[in-house]
Specification:
- The protein is α+β, with helices and mostly antiparallel strands.
- The protein folds into 2 domains: 70 residues, no CATH class; 85 residues, Alpha-Beta Plaits, CATH 3.30.70.1950.
- Helices cover 29% and strands 31% of the residues.
- The protein has a 5-stranded antiparallel sheet.
- Strand 6 and strand 7 form a beta hairpin.
- The longest helix has 12 residues.
- It starts with a strand and ends with a helix.
């Protein structure tokens, strides 16, 4: 397993054909939980709690896997929206560049926002949505059990789509 840092709080992990054979699933079917396990294994004793909230991008090959891991700074904030219209209005009012994901579960839109450098999310989100208090790992649950509509810049994507 080849692990290379590619900036602050970012890693790329390469698994070759022998390592891919030991994965619990084929590279094209790796889940977020399994990617987290790969990250823990790759970092070994250097793994710390800061890696509990991570954005993954996986690029499976026929007999290899390239995994990018981006550590989010700070805990995520979750917002529930009653419909798409308030969410679009919130996206239009927010500053650009926020790491954010939009998920849909049941009949509810949930926006996950990762503020920069431990700052707080934009206050306008409270005007359009209701904050949902959940632990940081709830984002992993949502990535597995809901439909991820947009991300990692969901607010920017919504604003661009509905200008």
């Amino acid at each position: 397993m080849d692990v290379q840092p590619i900036g602050d709080d970012k890693l790329v992990i390469y698994l070759d054909s022998d390592e891919v054979k030991n994965l619990p699933a084929p590279p094209c079917e790796i889940t977020t939980d399994e990617a987290s396990d790969i990250l823990r294994l790759a970092l070994g004793s250097t793994y710390d709690q800061g890696w509990e909230s991570v954005y993954f991008e996986l690029f499976p090959g026929r007999d290899s896997l390239l995994l990018f891991a981006l550590q989010h700074s700070g805990n995520p904030y979750y917002y529930v929206f009653p419909g798409i219209e308030p969410l679009i209005a919130a996206a239009a009012a927010c500053p650009s560049g926020l790491i954010s994901y939009l998920t849909y579960i049941g009949d509810t839109y949930i926006l996950i926002v990762y503020p920069w450098n431990g700052e707080y999310p934009p206050q306008v989100l409270y005007e359009y949505g209701e904050e949902l208090t959940r632990p940081a790992h709830y984002a992993l649950h949502l990535s597995e059990h809901s439909t991820v509509i947009a991300g990692p810049t969901a607010l920017d994507e919504l604003h661009a789509a509905f200008k």
